[in-house]
Amino acid sequence: MSTAPPNAAAVTAKTPKKAAAASFMGSAVEYYDFFIFGTAASLIFPHVFFPDADAQASIMSLATFGFAYIARPVGAVVLGHFGDRVGRQKILMFTLVLMGGSTFLIGCLPTFSTIGWWAPTLLVLCRLAQGLSAAGEQAGASSMTLEHAPDGRRAFFTSWTLTGTQGGQILAAMVFIPVVALPDEIKYGIGWRIPFWLSAVVVLVTFFIRRSLHETPTFQEAKANNQIAKLPVSDLMKHHWRDVLRVICCAFIAAVSTVYGTLAIKYGTEVGNVDATITLWLVVAGNIAALFTQPFFGMAADRFGRKPVFIYGAVASAVVMPFYLLSMESGNALLQFTLSVVVFGCGYAAANAVWPSFYAEMFSARVRFSGLAIGTQLGFLMAGFAPSIVAALGGLEPGGWKVISWFTAAICLTAVISALTAKETSKIPTAELGLR
């Protein structure tokens, strides 16, 4: 007598490599778009979207970067619901198009000199659309890759989701480096728009890769057995609310990335008098290092567990960040590049590589998309507003490295404490994850 579930023939095989590649490219799109916005918010937008390029304009410009993180929790609830109801792949196609379209439109916006305060208003609206997209992208990609991955290698394959963020940041920085070197009349004219328009190329490539990726066997089996939650968020809050809180606090670690990739750039140019081009190369160097280290951190998490690797990444980030910031004032380029690689490629990269599996494994398949999306996006609010908060506290003034360092230490400590309360899931079979 057959014990196969209903419609078992419709359940496809796992394709971990293809899922990892699709997740890599999707994350590359997301973080290309996010990083060019963050770079422009630091170096360009105070001059083109606000009346005076003074300190107040810099704070307001950095605040526009954070507005996407307001939209993210809303998008997490909506996209998480449909991701757990209709499938991971369909939502990932939607998020890809929304992110690419909103980024392209930013490159078309008129400036403050043309339409006044409508210019930053439209910029914020496009940024909110980016945030809605991002709310579902990483949660969907992580869920997709985790459910395609074999037991015992989940952290390695899901690490490629976040390694894609490094690819996107490298591409974005490489595109922006020649832009910041342009004469002001070109740079603040058409020059800054080009990186936003080029996002359309990356989106098209990713669209064709992702379109051929089939739904995960885990979701297909749940659907075949009528195990899809009618209200995933309700189930999530009833059975996994502690895990949601745990993910929120762990996700504070993402603020290290925005401090490193956005705030440190501003600190280096304004306080350390580092050339803007050099600060972008520093980011490129750190992200290139992470491209190579993150898969190894993923393998380490499969062997030794999620918690020790994640906690190491958080502690290392807090310890090295003040030295990196101080190097911005040293005038020593070799020291700056070395510490950039250490703080990001050897420190933060450990937590960054592991969190897709660490967080996703806290939830069952019924609510995995929702739990991962809602938990991370609420936690990422800290990352979104970290640059403007720290700038308002004096982080961009002489000696501001202390403010930035204490802030980084506080968010890393929060992530460490939360991670210590989590259950180690590296040896639990995928089908049993999140079950009580």
UniProtKB/TrEMBL annotation:
Entry-linked InterPro entries: MFS, MFS_dom, MFS_sugar_transport-like, MFS_trans_sf
Domain of life, source organism: Bacteria
Keywords for the protein's UniProt record, in alphabetical order: Cell membrane, Membrane, Transmembrane, Transmembrane helix, Transport
Transmembrane segments annotated in the record for this chain: 31-50, 56-79, 91-119, 190-209, 244-265, 277-297, 309-327, 333-355, 367-391, 403-422
Topology relative to the membrane: Multi-pass membrane protein
Primary location group: membrane
Location of the Major facilitator superfamily (MFS) profile domain: 19-427
Cytoplasm listed as a keyword: no
UniProt subcellular location: Cell membrane
Pfam family, one: MFS_1
Alphabetical list of PANTHER family matching this protein: SHIKIMATE TRANSPORTER
Protein name: MHS family MFS transporter
Organism, scientific name: Arthrobacter gallicola
